[in-house]
Amino acid sequence: MTASIPGKSLPIGAIVGGIGGVAAVVGAFLAWESVSFLGTSESMTGWEGGNGGKIIAVLGVVAVAIAIAWVMAIKLPTPGGLMILAGVLILLVGILNFSNVRDDVDQANAIVAGAASVGIGLFIDLLAGVAIIVGGALGVLTKKS
User: Fold this and answer.
1) pLDDT at 26
2) Around 135, how many Cα atoms within 13 Å sit in the side-chain half-sphere?
3) Which member of 14, 51, 112, 144 has the lowest number of beta carbons within 10 Å of its beta carbon?
4) How far apart are CA 145 and CA 132, in angstroms?
5) Cα separation of 111 and 39, whole Å?
6) Centroid of chain to Cα 3
7) Rounded-to-integer distance, Cα 47 and Cα 27, Å
């Protein structure tokens, strides 16, 4: 499957995976956890909250690099497979961090109901992992047909 622009045919898997990679990087810098109490609000990004956000950001950059190499037809052993691997790793790191953040949120909400919530950045990173996997799968399926 390819998308085309004048004079060039682009692999749709690379486009989907590349967009997912950019989303993963952006999500790592958005709020993963938010706490509000007595009129003040505090958020923690994935980048600030330990290594999870940093790992996801790096893997997002890797996914973008794979997508660029794939579009430029640079020889890679299997760009779709590499894209799937990056997406699965992002998804695993995101799920592990979601569990940790959810525990923090539950503890904060036990003290003051509704004081804490999981931030949008973590959800974006989880969706980005899925998008990267889908992009890689499109590449693998297109290659076989």
Assistant:
1) 97
2) 35
3) 144
4) 20
5) 16
6) 23
7) 9
**Interval 90-109: pLDDT, tens:** 999 999 999 888 888 888 88
DSSP E strand stretches across 12-137: 31-37, 40-45, 116-118
Conformational region of residue 7, where left means phi above 0, alpha means psi within -120 to 50, and beta covers everything else: left
Tell me how far apart the alpha carbons of residues 103 and 97 are, in angstroms, rounded to a whole number. 10
pLDDT at 6: 57
Encode pLDDT of 31-90 as tens digits: 999 888 777 888 899 899 778 999 999 999 999 999 999 999 888 888 999 999 999 999
Instruction: Look up residue 49 and give its DSSP letter.
Output: S
Ordered by start, the domain boundaries in the chain are 13-35+43-144
116 dihedral zone (left: phi>0; alpha: psi -120 to 50; beta): beta
Cβ 13 vs Cβ 83: under 8 Å: yes
